[in-house]
Amino acid sequence: MTDCSVWVDGIGLWAPRLPGWDASRAILRGEAEPPPTPAARPAPALLAPTERRRAPDSVAVALDVAASACAAARCEPRSIQSVFASAYGDPAVSDSVCEQLARAPLDTSPTKFHNSVHNAAAGYWAIATGCLEPYTSLSSYRHTFGTGLVTAVLHALSEDAPVLYVAYDIEARGPLATMAQSRGMLGEALVLSPRQIPQSLARLTLSVRETEGQPTPARPRNAALVEGNPVASGLALFEALADAVPRRLTLTLARNLTLQIALVPLA
């Protein structure tokens, strides 16, 4: 992959101690303290009240940051392609379904079953927004954030159109938590465009390198707020966007493959 550039037009971020991008910018810059009490999970206004109550945590956090990024970019959610990336989807729902199958399989909830599939959040997004544009749902274990980002970038460039990128993971529980190790809730979203527009916030120039490496860490104070979440490797990018200063970052795509990012803020 040769060097290529995209522009960040909108940002969404949510974690219990990073409750929304507007509040998180000052926290990530070290200018404000995170809330002492973790915020309750978001309630996406896109969903009807009944769906909002039934939606699992993974859907709630993914849709909240997706909607926030689209609003910041002033783009219509129903007309934008998307990439949803999650290491584990919804391990809490999967654990519940597995437990039910072991105890009384005929009583398995159809609602929980359809919430257990990996593309549940992307499906809810398409239904809630009425979006008929293509979406991709992917997982790449500890490399999920970087793999999802490069996928979204390639979509934006090949389709010559903006793409919504959403990365999210939630707390694992039960026996699955011994293998699918995931802590807390974290949702990250970007609207990426193949060209600069008036509301563009930063330019990202990316290149893939055949080399081993580690993802660029966020500052320890910030990293502690999302520690143990599989997509926490993306926080350094959001930290750099909050700092609004040029920065170079590394994300991993595989054991011996890295994504190099040069970020240049536009304001």
How would you portray this structure in words?
The chain has 267 residues and is α+β, with helices and mostly antiparallel strands. The chain has one domain (4-199): 3-Layer(aba) Sandwich (Peroxisomal Thiolase, Chain A, domain 1). It has nine helices and nine strands. Strands 1, 2, 3, 4, 5, 6, 7, 8 and 9 form a nine-stranded mixed sheet that branches.
CATH class: Alpha Beta
How much of the polypeptide forms β-strand, as a percent range? 15-25%
Main beta sheet strand tally, sense and closure: 9 strands, mixed
- CATH architecture identity: 3-Layer(aba) Sandwich
Give the tags.
34% helix, alpha+beta, single chain, Peroxisomal Thiolase, Chain A, domain 1, 9-stranded mixed beta sheet, 267 residues, globular
Break the fold down into its secondary structure elements and pairings.
Blueprint: E1 4-15, E2 18-19, H1 21-29, H2 49-54, H3 57-73, E3 81-85, H4 91-103, H5 110-116, H6 120-129, E4 135-138, H7 144-159, E5 163-169, E6 186-193, E7 202-209, H8 220-223, H9 235-243, E8 247-254, E9 257-265
Parallel strand pairs: 3-4, 3-5
Antiparallel strand pairs: 1-2, 1-6, 1-7, 5-6, 7-9, 8-9
Helix pairs in contact: 1-9, 3-6, 4-5
Question: What's the short story on this structure?
Answer:
34% of the residues lie in helices and 24% in strands. Strands 1, 2, 3, 4, 5, 6, 7, 8 and 9 form a 9-stranded mixed sheet that branches.
